[in-house]
Every structure is written in C-alpha cells, then in structure tokens.
Amino acid sequence: MKDTNISRRSVLCGVAVLSLGLGADFLPEAAQAAAGITQLKNGKIQVTLAANKVLAKVGGAVILNLNDGSQLGIVRTAAGVKGFSALSLVCPHNGAGVMEDGNKWVCPAHGSVFALNGKLIQGPARQGLSSIPVAATATTLTIG
Ligand code: FES
C-alpha cells in the first residue's frame, strides 16, 4: 500500500498548474491557474487570494501538481480566514488520485468519496484525505 501521508518535502516541491471551481453552481472558473502562487524560500507555498478568485467562494478549489506526481487541493470550505483547507488528493485507501466531482472528491479506483474538506463520506477508504497546515490572512494563504 502506498504511503498516502503527504510529506512536507512533497508540498515544498509543489508547482501550481491549474484551478477549478467546485461550487454548487459548478461555474467553470478554471484556468486562472498558477498566477499568484509562489514557493517561498522556506519551501512553503504562498497563495495570493486576489489572483485566485475561485477561492473567494465556498466550494472553490485550486489544484497544484506536485513534483512527486501527486496533487494538492486548496479548498474554500467556509467563510472567513479559517475557512480554507489544503489536502493531499491521494486516496488513503490505496494511493490513487482523487478527482473533483461537484462538491466532493471521488476516487476513481474503488469509489471512496470525500467531502470538500477531506472528510471521509464513503469507503472503502477508512480515513479522510490528509490535510496540510494552512495559515490564512485576508490576502494570502501560506501552506506547509
Ligand atoms: S484507491 Fe481510492 S478507493 Fe481504493
């Protein structure tokens, strides 16, 4: 079984490539991509919210492709500066990449389903998606 715990190192190697909307209205706010996403000297990832407007709305998400081939999802899960989650998009069941499906994440391998905030909704996975610390201000997120 593949280790599904996202390591600090893999987050630190992250490169942003794509964003998409996951809101209830499924607006295709995609392709605002890597703008406003930088890797800091300490290796953390900084996201400028003004350049990633998809995160202004609950349900919005930005997906980063990491150098290890996995993906990191940054999700607006609630209003306010505490309403952001950063999640490994590696399924904790057996390591497949989960995919956005409306307002949830679904694993195409065996059908596990996770809420936007990574909580397990349906197995066979036995736990939710791994989360990465997010420090948020009104203008930026710092992840890692
Ligand atoms: S790898 Fe995701 S449900 Fe099995």
How would you characterize this protein structure?
- With about 140 residues, this protein is mainly beta.
- It has one domain (about 10-144): Rieske Iron-sulfur Protein.
- About 5% of the residues lie in helices and about 35% in strands.
- The chain has 1 helix and 13 strands.
- The protein has one helix at about 10, and strands at about 15-20, 35-40, 45-50, 60-65, 70-75, 85-90, 100, 105, 115, 120, 130, 135, 140-144.
- The strands form 3 sheets. A 5-stranded antiparallel sheet has the order 1-4-5-6-11, with no helix packed on it.
- The chain is globular and about 40 Å long.
What's the architecture in CATH terms? 3-layer Sandwich
Provide the low-confidence segments as ranges: 1-33
Q: What summary fits the major beta sheet?
A: 5 strands, antiparallel
Provide the structure class.
Answer: mainly beta
Global morphology:
globular
How much of the sequence lies in strands comes to 35-45%
Got a strand count?
A: 13
Mean pLDDT: 78
The CATH homologous superfamily is named: Rieske [2Fe-2S] iron-sulphur domain
Strand order of the largest sheet: 1-4-5-6-11
CATH class: Mainly Beta
Radius of gyration: 14 Å
CATH topology descriptor: Rieske Iron-sulfur Protein
Q: Ligands bound here?
A: FE2/S2 (inorganic) cluster
